[in-house]
Request: fold
Amino acid sequence: MRRGRTFHGNERGAALVEFTIGALVFLTATFGVLEFSRLLWTHNALSDAARRAARYAVNHPSAELAAVKNIAIYGNIEGTGTTLVNNLDAAEVDVEYTNSSITGVFGYPDGSVSVTITNYQFQFVVPLFSTTLSMPDYRTTLTAESAGMIPPDIGPSTTPTPTPTPTVTPTPVPTATPTPAPTPTPTPAPTATPT
Reply:
């Protein structure tokens, strides 16, 4: 009787093929998670950059547009250091003041400020499907409120006002007034009532 053939010699290559397939799936999933995490971080950082710039513009209404854009890009008004988000530049940051001709309390504008980050291209580290992804616009609008503004320092006037001089006026003294004594009132006596 003839037995079936066994191919013991070819099993060495099967382990290598299985490892290659498993490693390919594992590494693809790992890099996918890393890229998605970077994408979410960039989304949050762009939203926060627009919020910071709008807040700075509302609290400093006389600030230059370059300073507001530097807050969004670098996190400081000087525009020094590394950018908060890779490849974000001033052309992608738009600052818009509304009602800037109307002045509120103490001369500060009480309109709103909108900061928009547009046309940002997210770049993948591992380009599986494409190298860049267009991010949506990030817009933050804040309203300037006079309650949140500190009024400018108003110095003393040039002409001093006269100081009032005290005058002597007599104060009335209370007088003793006799209080009438209470008068007795007759109280009726209880009577028996027939039942």
